[in-house]
Amino acid sequence: MQARHQRQAVPTCQRVSTFGFTLIELLVVIAIIALLVGILLPALGKARNAARISACGSGTKQIGVAMTLYANDFKSAFPMFPFDPGNANDPGRIDWTNPVQQNRSLSNQFRHGGLAGMFSVYQNGDGTDRGFRGGTDELTARYWPVSSSAPPSAQSGLDKPLLRGYLEGLQVLVCPADREDRYFGFPYTPGAPPVQAAKFKVPTPPTQESEVVNYNLSYMYIAGFKTDEIYLPKPAPLWGDETNGCDLSTRSWYGASSGNPNTTEATAAQTQAGFYGPFDNHGRDGANWVFTDGHTEFLKGNIHEEFFTTNTAKGQSVNSVDPNRSRRTQTLD
């Protein structure tokens, strides 16, 4: 009997392969990712800044509308604090009513708490560093010039902020890009303290009038204009981004009115007099401004020169027709 030949199964060696990156491939992938991040981050940063500038411009436009509504109710005059009715020798009244046109000027508008006084009679702020008068008793609130010793009966008679009722919300008073401000104390003493010595504050959008104080405001206002006047052939600057310096009267833009680009204030702020600095709302890029006709612009360069030069080639300057027109304005922040 022939034995059946059976084929014996011979075990075979199967090759098991695993897929993975080599070190070189991994390094190439990482390099590509780093390259993409390096390309995208600046673009994202620019997009974020553009969004903040746009939001700030929108808020600036809203303020311009509120100012115009106010002017419509007050014979075309944009908001201006009243003079002390009980004081015939009120310096502000004397300057404003000077019979010599070229010597007439606007002064002492800061007496009612600066720009914040247009939105808040009592300024608590964060409850630590207060503004005008302090406290929260709105029922007895009155504007009262800081330098006046007159009794309450001689106060200006205002029982509410000038712009109450003209804005839907107070949060618009803080620019979305504003990350710091400086508190110079109250009442403010011109020239002291310097920018770097002033107290650092982080602006907080106010939700009620008592929270409106100078360090919770991101803007400055140029008082003294009307909606239409013969000395302004072109719209005048009204409301725009402040600086972290003392934007009071003629000290706006780091002491620009002195004509000295090396002023102590400008040097301390790491900028030039007349320009915006690196720590302002939009840095050195510029600022949003709304004009007396309601239009807004994002302006760059030497803003003080743009607004107040006597060079008639500068179309935005309020002095293009009357070289003394800027004397009848006062900047508040």
Structural write-up:
- This protein is α+β, with helices and mostly antiparallel strands and 333 residues long.
- The protein has a domain at 23-106 and 171-200 and 218-332.
- A hairpin with a 4-residue loop joins strand 5 (287-291) and strand 6.
- The N and C termini lie far apart (119 Å).
- The protein is built from 5 helices and 7 strands; from the N terminus they run ααββββααββαβ.
- The strands form 2 sheets. The protein has a 5-stranded antiparallel beta sheet, covered by helices on one side.
Short account of what is shown:
This protein has 333 residues and is of the alpha+beta class.
> How do the SSEs run, as a string of H and E?
HHEEEEHHEEHE
Structural classification: alpha+beta
How many β-strands, per DSSP?
A: 7
Termini gap: 119 Å
Major beta-sheet overview: 5 strands, antiparallel
Q: What level of helicity do the residues show?
A: 10-25%
Q: Report the radius of gyration as a whole number of Å.
A: 30 Å
Strand order of the largest sheet: 6-5-4-3-7
Number of helices: 5
Could you outline the blueprint of secondary structure elements for this entry?
Blueprint lengths: L22 H51 L17 H6 L84 E3 L15 E3 L17 E5 L13 E5 L10 H4 L8 H5 L18 E5 L4 E4 L3 H6 L21 E3 L1
Keyword list:
333 residues; alpha+beta; five-stranded antiparallel β-sheet; two-stranded antiparallel sheet; 5 helices; 7 strands; 22% helix
